[in-house]
Automatic annotation (TrEMBL):
NCBIfam families: panC. This is Pantothenate synthetase. It comes from Hallerella succinigenes. Keywords: ATP-binding, Cytoplasm, Ligase, Nucleotide-binding, Pantothenate biosynthesis. The gene is panC. The reaction proceeds by a bi uni uni bi ping pong mechanism. Its EC number is 6.3.2.1. Belongs to the pantothenate synthetase family.
């Protein structure tokens, strides 16, 4: 396993492998790797000849009052994990390497979807995500890229971008990896103290409870949303949004009845930590 820090070096490493017919898998991350990331690395290592894991804390997807400065950074430990799970390269560029002229003038956007859900409270976040992911696809020339379903809206947008722009890459999305308690794995879980972390389990429990109600016959959107809101609030969480959306379009249900494959999307604060989670209803 090799740590590479420049675009030119990564391309120089990968070009002869591609010419030799080797398949390349890409796992884009912001570092602080955990078991959720490792499930993606495992999948890539199984399905490709070469696996590249990018570790890049992308500044253009963070707002002015967000947690860029305190986001955990531990490249050496991340590299050890990638090596242990069969990865071949860690691509760890600096912001100056990725954006040598400062903030880029050319941005990749989805003007409709980027303003919904997480995008509504994080202006510019998704155009930052789509822009850096496009750059990583172009830099690596990967055949396949791997993303987790915890960031459901992000994965949806990336899939649509690839389809809309005819990008020659397969997008694979893998299930959420959870802690033993049920809390979705996230690098931001480290921000919480033990009490907050224990209370935050209410998110996954509320989603599971709502799914059980749905499978028992409850199809009313407002009742399902209200039940989740109540359960999270009881645990001390502050809900930012709860929506039930179509899996096909990701637009929120407006009929009032869950009548197609859908997904519950939620963002909530426990303490000062913002957490996201979701649950598919099929």
């Amino acid at each position: 396993m090799k740590i590479v820090k420049t675009i030119a070096e990564l391309r120089a490493e990968l070009l002869p492998l591609k010419k030799a017919g080797k398949s390349i898998g890409l796992v884009p991350t912001m570092g602080a790797l955990h078991e959720g990331h490792m499930s993606l690395v495992d999948a890539s290592a199984k399905e490709n000849d070469v696996t590249v894991v990018s570790v890049f804390l992308n500044p253009i997807q963070f707002g002015k009052n967000e947690d860029l400065d305190k986001y955990p950074r531990r490249l050496e430990k991340d590299a050890e994990l990638v090596d242990a799970h069969g990865g071949n390269f860690v691509f760890a560029p600096t912001p100056a390497e990725m954006y040598p002229d400062g903030d880029p003038l050319t941005l990749v956007r989805d003007e409709t979807m980027e303003c919904l859900y997480c995008g509504a409270t994080r202006p510019g976040h998704f155009r930052g995500v789509l822009t850096v992911v496009t750059k990583l696809f172009n830099i690596s020339g990967a055949d396949r890229a791997y993303f987790g379903k915890k960031d459901y809206q992000q994965a949806f947008l990336i899939k649509r971008m690839v389809k809309d722009l005819n990008m020659p890459i397969e997008i694979h999305t893998l299930p959420i990896v959870r802690e033993a308690s049920g809390l979705a794995r996230s690098s931001r879980n480290e921000y919480m103290n033990d009490v907050e972390r224990g209370a935050a389990v209410a998110i996954s429990k509320a989603l599971l409870d709502a799914k059980a109600s749905y499978e028992a016959g409850e199809k009313d959107v407002n009742r399902l949303r209200s039940k989740i809101q109540e359960n999270v609030a009881k645990a001390g969480g502050v809900v930012q949004y709860i929506e039930i959306a179509s899996q096909k379009t990701l637009f929120a249900n407006t009929s009032g009845t869950v009548d197609e494959p859908s997904v519950i999307l939620i963002a909530a604060f426990f303490g000062k930590t913002r957490l996201i989670d979701n649950m598919e209803l099929n």
